[in-house]
Amino acid sequence: MHALALDPRNRGLVLASRLGLLGGGIFLWWLCTTLEWLPPFFFGNPVEVAGRIVGWFASGEIFIHLYTTLLETIIAFLIGTALGLGIGLWLALSPFLAEVVDPFLKAFNSMPRLIFAPIFAMWFGLGIWSKVALGVTLVFFVVFFNVFQGVREVSPVVLANTRMLGANARQLMRHVYLPSAMSWVFSSLHNAVGIAFVGSVVGEYLGSEKGMGYMILLAEGVFDIDSVIAGILLLTVFALLLDTAVSVIEERLMRWQPDGNQTVESAA
C-alpha cells in the first residue's frame, strides 16, 4: 500500500497510534473473553494464545513447521513471480501470440485454482512440491496480468522517441519496457506474498506431515481454538515480514521514480 508522503515529525505519532490500536484490540479481546461476553471456547483468550506461542518456541517444535511453510511460500513466490514476469513480457511484446492464447489464459484464470490442490498432491506427493505448485498457480496470474498491462501501457510517444535516438530491441527492453513493467510488478507483489502463503497452508491442510497448516489442522481436530489462533497469528507476522522485505527491495530498485512531492514541485 502506497501512501502520500508523511511528515517525518509525524512518524512517531503514527507508530504510537498503531501500537495503541493493537494494544486496545488485544485488551478488548481479553476483556470480552475473560468476562465471557464472548465464549472463550470459540474465540480463545489472548493470554492462552500467547502461552501457546511461547511454549512452541520454548520446546522448539514450531521451527520445523515454520521452516516448511516459509520454504514452500518463498519458492512458490519466486517461481510464480519469475514466470509471471517472463511470460507477461513475452506475450505483451507478441500481440499475435497474445491474441491466440487469450481465451485459454482467461479460462484458466477463471478456475478456482484451489481445486488443483488434490491433483498436485497426486502428481508431486505430500512433500513441499505439491504446495509449491499450488502457490505458483496462484502467484503467477497476479504478476502476469500486471506485467502484461504495464508493458501495454508504455506510451507510443516514448517508444517512438527512443527508437529515433537509435535504441535497439535490447535497449528498449532495458530502458523502456522493463521499467514500465516493474512499476506494475511491485504493485502486485505485496498481494502475491499473501497469496503464496494461502497456497502453502491450503496444501498442508489437504495433506502433509509438517507445516503451519498441518499444526492448525491438528488443533482444529481437538477443538483447541487457542492453538488455531496462535498459528494464524504466526502466519500473519511472517507474511508481514516478507511483505516488508518486498517493500525494501522495491524502494531500492524503484529509486529512479520521482516521489509525490517531486511530482508536485515539477508541475508547479
UniProtKB/TrEMBL annotation:
Under the heading InterPro entries, the entry gives: MetI-like, MetI-like_sf
The protein's matches in SUPFAM superfamilies, at most eight in alphabetical order, are given as: MetI-like
> What keywords does the record list, in alphabetical order?
Cell membrane, Membrane, Transmembrane, Transmembrane helix, Transport
Task: Look up the record and report any one GO term of the cellular component aspect.
Answer: plasma membrane
Gene Ontology biological process terms in this record: transmembrane transport
Location in the cell reads: Cell membrane
Chief subcellular location equals membrane
Keyword Cell inner membrane set for record? no
Q: Which residues cross the membrane?
A: 12-31, 74-93, 114-132, 181-207, 227-249
Return the Pfam families for the record.
BPD_transp_1
Signal peptide span per the entry?
none
* Residue ranges of domain ABC transmembrane type-1 in the record: 66-246
UniProt KW Transmembrane keyword: yes
Bilayer topology reads: Multi-pass membrane protein
PANTHER family hit by this protein? ABC TRANSPORTER PERMEASE PROTEIN HI_0355-RELATED, ALKANE SULFONATE ABC TRANSPORTER-RELATED, MEMBRANE SUBUNIT
Q: Which family does it belong to?
A: Belongs to the binding-protein-dependent transport system permease family.
The protein depicted here goes by the name NitT/TauT family transport system permease protein
Lineage, broadest ranks: Bacteria, Pseudomonadati, Pseudomonadota, Alphaproteobacteria, Rhodospirillales
